[in-house]
Amino acid sequence: MALRLSKFRSAARRLRSLHFVPGGSQKFLEKALASRADALIVDLEDSVLPAEKASAREEVSKWMTSTDWGSKTVCVRINPMDTPLWEADVSSTLKKEKPHMLVVPKVSSPADLDKLGTKLAELEKQLGREVGGTTVLPIVSEVPEAPLRAHEIARHPRVEAVTWGAEDLSAELGAKKRRDGSGQYLEVFQLCRSLTLLAAKGAKVQAIDTVYTNLKDLEGLRVESETSADTGFDGKLTIHPDQIDVVNAAFSPSNQEVAEATELLEAAKSQPGAFRFKGQMVDIPHFKQAQRILDRADSTGPAAEATEKPPAWPEGPFHGKWLEELTEGLIIPHALTRTVSETDNLLFTTMTLNPARLHLDYESAKATQFGKPLVNSMFTLALLVGMSVLETTHGTTIANLGFEEVVFPKPVFYGDTLRAETEVIKNRPSSSNPSRGIVTFEHRAFNQNGQVVCKARRNAMMRKRPSSL
Fold this sequence. Notes:
Helix content is 37%, strand content 20%. By secondary structure, the protein is α/β, with parallel strands linked by helices. It folds into 3 domains: 7-251, TIM Barrel; 252-313, no CATH class; 323-463, Hotdog Thioesterase (Thiol Ester Dehydrase, Chain A, Roll). The strands form 3 sheets. An 8-stranded parallel beta sheet has the order 5-4-3-2-1-8-7-6. Strands 11, 12, 13, 14, 15 and 16 form a 6-stranded antiparallel beta sheet that branches.
């Protein structure tokens, strides 16, 4: 049995992650070259200011011949076909060997690709490239008329893969937002995504999912990427280096998936048709899916192994309070206390490179109004926040957003024993993300005499209790 899903499956070029690099920025290029991205998209469109288009184009033209790209697929995103810039982009950047592919924005119909193909054929003859060998990746959703013609666009002979985008389309539609409160695409954008996938599969080319714009939310990226792969997408566009390994892992089969697919196809060799396999009836669709997994494994090679996900780190325990539990006015006494020692002060002060005699020099401290060394106030602040964590933010915070006010009403000396309490000052649920909100805490530290030695007001991004808990 030798099942191949489509022509690109057996090709060397695999496009799990396609990473954007601003045209002309050497710093970003060097970072991208060091990444595990399967393809780099050198961008001459959105990431380049109008006044810098010509200089960026010139720099990218040099990159095509002077850069060691390794095994990466090299792409250039040209400017839209309805501008005078695209032709100069193609003429300047197409060289004997690179780029392999052009990313074409705002494609509205196959006629756009016919026009581009004519220009490419002329240049390919001049450069000694194989005529027709320069492939294209059209973005088929950036103008309203394009999505319903995606299936026609995807069948153009130069198309190697198809992708979509929500940002330009939302501007064309006048849409106020692209996702709902749970992070899912609104209906019209989900429709475009589905039409892109169907068009690609119908044309037997690769389907590439669009960018995930929340750069800090790698968990959301992982979920969206895995869902895309489960649906049938072959890869995803990325805009930050931290996204690349997450995307590669999502679009690479695991060792277990490869082993099971291999076992199924081996068993199928001796069967004339449908048969029972591990308690399940299997037939042609199952064989195709198994072959698809092996094709992905063959084309990703060592990179897939490098991005294999480690075992999931266990969540919890959650000793802190969730957003909805932190009601304004709530006062939380903290269980942990601490007697401050001379060693605490010396280690903290020297580790933070603070040379103040007030903390380190007994003789100098004798001449002060205190008559002895003071404990470093930054240690006092750090200790206060640390004592507060267990009952407030342990496992329930996303980030510490900063301090509004920090005061030290009384000094702390060696031998003082400190306790702490926290008051919730404000609780503001997020208007854009219902799973989180910002809480203002006021932490207070007291010595053994009941005197306030530190008061700190800070803001923290807090999680609501997940529905799974």
